[in-house]
């Protein structure tokens, strides 16, 4: 019998894999200085449970990664693969996502959770996965050739480590990052503080990954080598108006966690109607929120995470968007000439004799595009605007709406805001103009 | 005896005048031959006095234009006159030469009454003996002239066809050039408006202006081409005075299938008028030299009655003849000349056969290529460019490119139409060349 098992072991060593067993989850030897995860490993906390230990994060337009428990370890499986992804209703692209989505599913954990993450590569190229911002053993860092061999197409690698601290992190390819991140190999990780007292947790916790691609109109493959001229700016893989609104009840403490895995652009995300504090990054948390400066715009640099906190004390529909104005247009034509101010009197009629259906656009800016009924190239969403209850906002791209409601039945209610009477800007009456001595260009009123 | 002799001579003389001077038979034969070879009927004013007026009420198609040319072109009348000349020559060839009457009177010592009177009547019997050959020669000449007239008419038909297609293509090109100019003018207009709005530089405006002003010259050249083509066709149609006429707007279409031209060389050779004329030349040469040799050997043979009155008053009457004696010249030189001429014509014939075969083969291959080129243009190039323009328009609607780029792409699409028109005209011209070869006429300078 012993001979049998010995033979089996010898034989398996001849053709089986010779991987060394992972040791990152076992108790480490004492080291000085102590490793960042040493305390967490020693604490050996049970796996955190949603609801009990943390309020789950909300991922608009997105999903969360499933896991199973194996001996107290949360086991995840990420599959890096080529997918068809709808950035908007009329724009389908070929992205390199995880588990059928772009960005990949959010990995949600509690501080101290031990994880084993299998990554299967179904891409046409080798890849790795880097856990951005996570303090872990070097061999789990996911940098191809430096900390591990690349995962070849068809192979499955295993990463195993502990998340020592709460925070907001990201994961992305670290092999040919320009191409693979550019094609969509990106996702977010949230590690909650284990907080049994629900009142001390945020009431609403949102996760948004910012990303950008260059996808010429009528094409479907992102140009990952582009360094400028990005024309598809997404929040969780969608462009406005296809981004799912954030819904909060009046009085909710709201967190929004922004991660930015764009190729080249930082994004200053401006929130209307509120100021907030930037309470965290992928490096950690602010120790004392009282000294933080209130902001209305948070700059989220490339490769960084920012977490903002505010009290939802102002009801309404509040737009929040990247304040780089081109980033709120979908598939903006960067070769389109400056048409603003052009006198088109009689011009269109002359052109229509030669080109039926012609219409000059852009003389008043991009407004014409939002209302144009002209036939468009298939698989394109050129600068469509969000149609609100007062018309078209002529906005797209990296934008979304925060809906704050007083009487909210549930957080799935995305109906437009019912403005109280007399609180909406409207055309001034003659009496008002006269009363306040306002002269318009038509003469004294 | 004398009376019988004189009666016989009279009957012989009057009976030989059996060919008239009216070439109407020859003309009819030519017209029938033309109809057989080309399929074109030659009308006449006498039978169809209002035909031309009726036809000019409508735009002319190709067949009508050819018919008008055959009816109205003064060259046709000139050709018919050639037939008249040859017919008259045949008539002349059939007539005997008039006899020569001689008379002399001699007065002794210049007194009133003539002492001696001599009278004679001589007829050139060599001419009578050679008459059948001369008639045969004149008939061959007439046949040659008929062949020449047929060949020239086929040339006129061919010229008319080419002139028709030249005008048709020029008119089509003018329309397209005008559209291209319009597109450029609109681009210039847009550039001016953008410059006024402060959105483009003077350089950018200047570029559009330069394109536009250059295209104005292309349109004026296209108009000139139409006028020239019109004049060419008008001259062929035989219109001297200003007359309102138009040709019909033909669609940009050619034969759906390529005609089978495998036997074109055989047809061209079998039907060749050029070879026929050369063959007739050889026959004429042979006959002509036959007569010349005989006339060289025996230059004269005359026969007739001769009489003399003596001073005493006695009349002496009797026959007289003169005949050339072949003593020095037996016609060898003439014979050699005739032989060499015939050999030369023989080699010319062979050379012409080669030339006709070459022209037929070139025409066959060129027509095939022209058909393929036009079909490619119609079925692939034009639709591809239309699709490109359509997609460009969609990109414009998506505000990915501007109005000037859109108009430039329209010009590009229109330019491919010009290419298709060139292929169309080339095909029609080559088809006319093939039809000419099939009808039996070689191509002259305007063809291959």
Structural commentary:
- The complex is a heterodimer of chains A (445) and B (448).
- Helix content of chain A is 10%, strand content 30%.
- Chain A has helices at residues 2-15, 38-43, 177-183, 347-354, 367-371, 430-435, and strands spanning 67-70, 73-88, 91-98, 107-110, 114-122, 130-132, 156-162, 167-172, 186-192, 204-213, 232-235, 246-249, 253-260, 267-271, 277-281, 284-285, 297-300, 305-311, 316-322, 387-388, 391-392, 399-405, 439-440, 443-444.
- In chain A, a hairpin with a 2-residue loop joins strand 15 and strand 16.
- Chain A is mostly beta strands and 445 residues long.
- Chain A starts with a helix and ends with a strand.
- The mean pLDDT of chain A is 91.
- Chain B is α+β, with helices and mostly antiparallel strands and 448 residues long.
- Chain B has a four-stranded antiparallel sheet.
- In chain B, a hairpin with a 5-residue loop joins strand 3 (301-309) and strand 4.
- In chain B, helix 6 (125-196) runs antiparallel to helix 7 (202-237), helix 8 packs across helix 11 (403-439) and helix 10 packs antiparallel against helix 11 (403-439).
- The relative contact order of chain B is 0.12.
- The model of chain B has no long low-confidence stretch (mean pLDDT 91).
- Classes of the chains: A mainly beta (445), B alpha+beta (448).
- The A-B interface holds A 216-218, 331-333, 335-344, 347, 350-351, 353-355, 357-362, 366, 369, 372, 374-377, 380, 382-383 and B 179, 182-183, 186, 189-190, 193-194, 196-200, 391, 393-395, 397-404, 406-407, 410.
Please write out the topology:
The complex is a heterodimer of chains A (445) and B (448).
Chain A: H1 2-15, H2 38-43, E1 67-70, E2 73-88, E3 91-98, E4 107-110, E5 114-122, E6 130-132, E7 156-162, E8 167-172, H3 177-183, E9 186-192, E10 204-213, E11 232-235, E12 246-249, E13 253-260, E14 267-271, E15 277-281, E16 284-285, E17 297-300, E18 305-311, E19 316-322, H4 347-354, H5 367-371, E20 387-388, E21 391-392, E22 399-405, H6 430-435, E23 439-440, E24 443-444
Parallel strand pairs in A: 2-5, 4-9, 10-13, 12-22
Antiparallel strand pairs in A: 1-2, 2-3, 5-7, 6-8, 8-9, 10-11, 13-18, 14-17, 14-19, 15-16, 15-18, 19-22, 20-21, 23-24
Chain B: H1 2-15, H2 24-38, H3 51-55, H4 62-72, H5 74-94, E1 100-106, E2 116-124, H6 125-196, H7 202-237, H8 264-270, H9 273-297, E3 301-309, E4 315-323, H10 332-397, H11 403-439
Antiparallel strand pairs in B: 1-2, 2-3, 3-4
Helix pairs in contact in B: 2-6, 2-11, 4-6, 5-6, 6-7, 6-9, 6-11, 8-10, 8-11, 9-10, 10-11
